[in-house]
């Protein structure tokens, strides 16, 4: 990661992030405090609303209880079939004087168990027959309650009780003295007092506050704004509320508006069978009020401060960082060898001193590298001359030894041919350039092998497979001959001891294969024999020779045993490494009893 990114990340981590976290924590704390304070206030409000609703239901329950225990009402339920019109008129007046004298009462219907019904109500009421009453889902529950009221809220069973905002009470009428079941009372109430309660507490807080009475299924029975009655609460909120708990409050969206929704379960068990809760919805905008304006101002000031800090970072800190990165990029160019790079200082502060020091350092390094390069060139040239001096006497000694052996045998013609070939070989050795064309190196190798075949008759055969297209490829002279010499002297040593030309058809004959091939960016030379191979320990030590590689895993600096490898292989490996570099060189693969394969890799070029 570069310095600019580090400084930017540091700026974000130690300046921007703390301010952002501080602002976020402040905002969340203020929201939490507002929500907590309102939740406490809302709890008191809802409980007060609940107490008022309880008083309303308690009064209605008391009035109904008192009315149905009157003796004339009890006698009405004991009447037999065939009530005449006069008596029926008296019953209607009785119902009006008793049940409908209570202001919130809307209608009343008495049923006896002979399926007779007597009903009265305000204009527009619809009486419910006993057959319809028996179909109500709560009829069995009413009978099981045996006198305890079962309340039905508005819109709960509107198919039977109507869709008006009416509260319906159904209860079994018991005999005052024997407690026997005399009939069933169905009475409906229109509690206008609820609107006054909701409006009072709503005006105390805000006209935007909504109050609702919901049942255990979330059905909205009463809405003080007269818009959501008959709908479900869950279809308007994006969260969930537990309607059975004593009190619960939470922040959620109500009809897409962020609001505080609170619910309080009404404790109405002593007044009958019901499971209702009162719900309040208060918009969050009303609660946050001016605190949100303060938070917005703080946020705006924080953003301006961050922009100022960012501008300072870009104009001042950024300029210094760009100059440092400029120095770093220049140093990278120096690392890859571009010593002509110079840094230009455009200011008069400390950066100009840094630029001058950098330029002076690069100039000094350039001078030192030139001195080292000249010294290394002289050293490499001396090493090459020394290695070639090692190869020439070694080869001459072996060749003269072969000529001497032939002269002792009075093989004059062979001696002549060998001397001729030796002269050709010496002309290549004394060639004034270090590199020669590959074709000249191959002629040198062919003359050398013919000399060795004169010396070791029937010991080996050879094959040379070099494409004509590679004839002009330059190669260090005397590269292949030492490798072939090693194969003959050490790889075929056992074959020589068995006696050449003895006519033994089972004796294995040596074979040398010299080949060349072209790759994408190099020329590969192969030297392969079927001789005795190189022992594993020798091969591992040979792997430690600079410029050579093998399949072994160990590298050591131990000297090579001359009795099995000789000087040729290490010298050729070192020459290739020094002349061509580490990308090129030699690889040796060998296994005792299976011969040796040597691969030499050189650059693909052509002689000028």
Automatic annotation (TrEMBL):
<feature type="coiled-coil region">
    <location>
        <begin position="358"/>
        <end position="392"/>
    </location>
</feature>
<feature type="transmembrane region" description="Helical">
    <location>
        <begin position="297"/>
        <end position="317"/>
    </location>
</feature>
<dbReference type="InterPro" id="IPR010559">
    <property type="entry name" value="Sig_transdc_His_kin_internal"/>
</dbReference>
<keyword id="KW-1133">Transmembrane helix</keyword>
<dbReference type="GO" id="GO:0004673">
    <property type="term" value="F:protein histidine kinase activity"/>
</dbReference>
<dbReference type="InterPro" id="IPR003660">
    <property type="entry name" value="HAMP_dom"/>
</dbReference>
<keyword id="KW-0902">Two-component regulatory system</keyword>
<dbReference type="InterPro" id="IPR033479">
    <property type="entry name" value="dCache_1"/>
</dbReference>
<keyword id="KW-0812">Transmembrane</keyword>
<protein>
    <recommendedName>
        <fullName>histidine kinase</fullName>
        <ecNumber>2.7.13.3</ecNumber>
    </recommendedName>
</protein>
<feature type="domain" description="HAMP">
    <location>
        <begin position="318"/>
        <end position="370"/>
    </location>
</feature>
<dbReference type="Pfam" id="PF02518">
    <property type="entry name" value="HATPase_c"/>
</dbReference>
<dbReference type="InterPro" id="IPR050640">
    <property type="entry name" value="Bact_2-comp_sensor_kinase"/>
</dbReference>
<keyword id="KW-0175">Coiled coil</keyword>
<dbReference type="Pfam" id="PF00672">
    <property type="entry name" value="HAMP"/>
</dbReference>
<keyword id="KW-0472">Membrane</keyword>
<dbReference type="Pfam" id="PF02743">
    <property type="entry name" value="dCache_1"/>
</dbReference>
<keyword id="KW-0597">Phosphoprotein</keyword>
<dbReference type="InterPro" id="IPR003594">
    <property type="entry name" value="HATPase_dom"/>
</dbReference>
<dbReference type="InterPro" id="IPR004358">
    <property type="entry name" value="Sig_transdc_His_kin-like_C"/>
</dbReference>
<dbReference type="Pfam" id="PF06580">
    <property type="entry name" value="His_kinase"/>
</dbReference>
<dbReference type="InterPro" id="IPR036890">
    <property type="entry name" value="HATPase_C_sf"/>
</dbReference>
<keyword id="KW-0418">Kinase</keyword>
<feature type="transmembrane region" description="Helical">
    <location>
        <begin position="7"/>
        <end position="29"/>
    </location>
</feature>
<keyword id="KW-1003">Cell membrane</keyword>
<feature type="region of interest" description="Disordered">
    <location>
        <begin position="544"/>
        <end position="565"/>
    </location>
</feature>
<keyword id="KW-0808">Transferase</keyword>
